[in-house]
Amino acid sequence: MQQKQTHFYAIGLSYKKADAEIRGHFSLSDDAKSSILKEAKAHGVESLLLVSTCNRTEIYGFAERPCQLIELLCENTKGTVEEFQKVAYVYKNKDAIAHMFRVGSGLDSQILGDFEIIGQLKAGARKSKAAGLLNSYIERLLNAVIQASKRIKNETELSSGATSVSFASVQYIMNNVQHISDKNILLFGTGKIGRNTCENLVKHTKNPHITLINRTKNKAEAIAGKFNLIVKDYEDLQEEINASDIIVVATGAQNPTVKKALIATDKPLLILDLSIPKNVNEDVKELDNVNLVHMDDLAKITDDTVEKRKAFIPAAQIIIDEVSADFYSWLDTLKFVPTIQAIKHKLTEIKNSEVNTQRKKLNDFNEEQAELITNNLIQKITNQFAHHLREDSNTSNDSLELIKKIFQLETTQNV
Question: Can you tell me the distance from the alpha carbon of 239 to that of 277, in angstroms, rounded to the nearest whole number?
Fold first, then answer.
């Protein structure tokens, strides 16, 4: 039976074509990720890596056709295949590898040089490995991407200066709100973006009136203790909204939590929604005193820092080219593996046949010694072939064909 041919794909959508609302439709919760991995395993998928952040949702994996991965994504999110096709990208083999390098190195980030995605890639790999869905190809590729991102961070200034969505949000507040140190600020949600925003608020606004609310109160208390801030219960959300001048929403909720119905104040209220899916209902815009700003608006703030970073793109690309060349060298050696295994199998067949013949001929035949000697010979011969194929890269394809003819081999080549 002929083995099905699979290819390495990267399918997904990002801030480039999909706005926050559409990205929200394809956002993957932890349950959705587990469900995709379970379904992939049941359908015989060899390897898969899932990434879902504020800016992108992607699946890296092996499939006969990309639609297999697209269907897995759409079946486990609110998004549809039609919606996906309008904003999506699909990369195959070398293009998929190049895409992962660009994403992991910060070249494809909404704010150039933002390396936050690396943590997400690592977390995705851990989940896949636990599910038995991380093969040596994707694991090796991810390690190469991590290596490239470290080198870019250390050897270039692509990530120099304080620029991120959390920093941009604080910049926006400081540029648009007067007497910032006197305002009441509410931070709702204390995940990674929430924590970073909190740190930037404390550092840059010198404001002592910052209140934290999180569904899990002890997480908010851990951050509040670090900065000596106030923590309120989730039940106090409406009261705190109406006592605030500025609200920063950075929760992981799948549906809007802050709505028009919760707002009873007439004083000017600035709301920054840093959540994907969006966590502030659009109906708050109906109130004249409310100014709602989303993270996509903040990411458009191009300051001097981002402009300076662009100068380091060529240096970052050189590093990516160097590291990816090493990955491709490793990938080239994989095509020899089936042939080497087939040689070993053929030599073992010849050995078994000869040992059986000698066993019948010789009365004092030493089975143990014969096994030891022949196995050592087989190993040395196969090592010699492997060494030749690895070293002689210019003629390796010709050599493979010649070896197959000499030994009358049939090998199944993996992609």
Answer: 24
Residues spanned by the domain of 132:
7-160+310-332
pLDDT in tens, 284-330: 999 999 999 998 888 776 566 778 888 999 999 999 999 999 999 88
Residue with tokens 């704010």: 111
What ranges in 156-191 are assigned the alpha helix state H? Answer: 165-176
67 is catalytic: no
Domain-embedded: residue 2: no
Span between the terminal Cα atoms of the chain, in Å: 17
In terms of domains, do 395 and 267 share one? no
Alpha-carbon torsion angle 343, 348, 350, 354, nearest 10: 160
CATH of the domain at 137: 3.30.460.30
CB atoms inside a 10 Å sphere around CB 177: 17
Report the b/e string of 49-68 with b at 16+ CB within 10 A: bbbbbbbbbbbbbbbeebeb
pLDDT, tens digit, for every residue of 353-368?
A: 998 998 888 888 898 8
Q: What is the pLDDT of residues 146-172, one digit of tens each?
A: 999 999 999 998 877 656 778 888 888
User: H or E stretch including 271?
Assistant: strand 269-273
Among the listed residues 54, 67, 74, 198, the single catalytic one is 54
Look up residue 265 and give its amino acid. T
